[in-house]
Amino acid sequence: MAQETTRDDSDSPSGSVVSPIANGSNKKEKKSSKDKSSKKRALSSGERRSSVSKPARDPSDKPTDDSPSKKKKRKTSATTAVVPPTIAEEELTPSTSVTRSPSPVIDFDGLSRPSRGTRERLEETEAQKQERLDKMKGAVRTLLECIGEDPDREGLLATPERYAKAMLFLTKGYQENVRDIVNGAIFQEGHNEMVIVKDIEVFSMCEHHLVPFTGKMHIGYIPSNAVIGISKLPRIAELFARRLQIQERLTKEVANAIMEILKPQGVAVVMESSHLCMVMRGVEKTTSSTITSCVLGCFESREKTRSEFLSLIGVNR
């Protein structure tokens, strides 16, 4: 028969019984003394505890990269205004950003998307203007010959000059300055309700086929106390329409320009137009129309504000 063996108190190395409760209290005392010593070291070194959303259990604790303070700091830095590059920088390093910018790339003299030819035309002398016109007339005469017409017949004698002058007029927006058009017509009125100018007639040239597309544009914005002269909104639309365009870019450029000049709470632009490149050629759909929109600021972030604008211009009917 096996005999049960009992452990005597003397079997322990120290000759005393180790109690689990006593062992836990010893650990607490060691942890408490460790906390006090680390606190003394932090106070003696003058180290300041970083602020976080909740107090740290240990004064020596520091927030990690995922702490709220770090996230807030990164978010603030992400919204910092980006300084537009100079003309030389634009030519050397073309923009590759895919983020949505609140303003277009407008250079120091107010031109939007300026090219080398834009500046040459803007700064040319009278002799250079005549040289440009003669060059265009020769190109139109060549086109007439290529399609099988006689450019010397009575009805076509002045056509090359007429067409050249018409094309220069239809693309005059390249030389116009956004800030000159606004001309300081921004007034501090303390107004912060929606302002809409609707049914603005727009005529532009399709850059793919060099034929017109026409329609109407609706512009709305919510001021941040400052309002702009209402005639300036159609003028801004005219500036960007009088160049070779596509409707999508035209809509976006008008919205971005207003956001850049006025700095409102938000801007919304909707355009509906008919494109002759798909009416009188191609698919030849005479009843089709194209609608584009661009919403920035509070119009983009608030669905109710956007719906109110669309309802007021009649899109939601």
Summarize the topology.
Elements: H1 20-45, H2 68-78, H3 87-92, H4 116-123, H5 126-146, H6 159-170, H7 178-182, E1 186-191, E2 195-206, E3 212-222, E4 225-228, H8 232-241, E5 244-245, H9 247-262, E6 266-275, E7 290-297, H10 298-301, H11 303-312
Parallel strand pairs: 2-5
Antiparallel strand pairs: 1-4, 2-3, 3-6, 6-7
Helix pairs in contact: 5-6, 8-9
Terminal Cα separation, in Å? 99 Å
Helix content: 40-55%
Q: Give the total of beta strands.
A: 7
Average pLDDT reading: 77
The assigned structural class equals alpha+beta
What is the strand content? 15-25%
Q: For the report, how would you describe the main beta sheet?
A: 5 strands, mixed
For the biggest β-sheet, the strand order reads: 5-2-3-6-7
Order of helices and strands: HHHHHHHEEEEHEHEEHH
Instruction: Catalogue the unreliable spans.
Output: 12-16, 49-73, 75-105
Number of distinct helices? 11
**Judging from the principal axes of the Cα atoms, what is the shape?**
elongated
Rg, Å, rounded: 36 Å
Can you describe what's shown?
The chain has 11 helices and 7 strands. Strand 2 (195-206) and strand 3 form a beta hairpin. Helix content is 41%, strand content 17%. It is α+β, with helices and mostly antiparallel strands. The strands form 2 sheets. It has a 5-stranded mixed sheet with strand order 5-2-3-6-7, sandwiched between helices. The N and C termini lie far apart (99 Å). Helix 5 (126-146) crosses helix 6 (159-170) and helix 8 crosses helix 9.
